[in-house]
Please model this.
Amino acid sequence: MLRLALQVAAMALAAGCAAPASGPEFSLLHAAPDKATLYVYRPSAKFNYGGYPHVFVNGEKKFALKDQGYSVLILEPGTYEIKFEGSKWGTNWWPPPATRTLSVEAGREYFVRAVPGGAPGPDASKTVPSTLVRLVPKQQALAELRRLRLVDE
Model:
């Protein structure tokens, strides 16, 4: 009986981790001309879809980037370090932390896509988990974002 209860609890926990972003559908934001607008998003991916990283900006945790989710940050002009980090046990995120330094200007929009994937390992027969972080052109990003939902902060 205890074994059955543990199996049910494990399935419930796994189902909770696998929930994609569930906020409102994507909409473009028009920010003030003296600020930069940064969209950070994660299109659906089969690899590590049940896990998620937290997104940090200059060391400050901002949000959990769940599968099929996005968030918007309004930033002062300047240079920022964007970090994607989770844990195998806390957020079921297998890739190691990934960072990207980004300089932003007032009145401009930036689109950063983060996708879990694999990179070739030291042994050609093995793949090492990684987070692929890329600055994406606006038109490409908008085509991907239209299917995504806002993540809970």
Q: What stands out?
A: The longest helix spans residues 2-17. The helical segments are 2-17, 138-145. The chain has a mean pLDDT of 83. The radius of gyration is 17 Å.
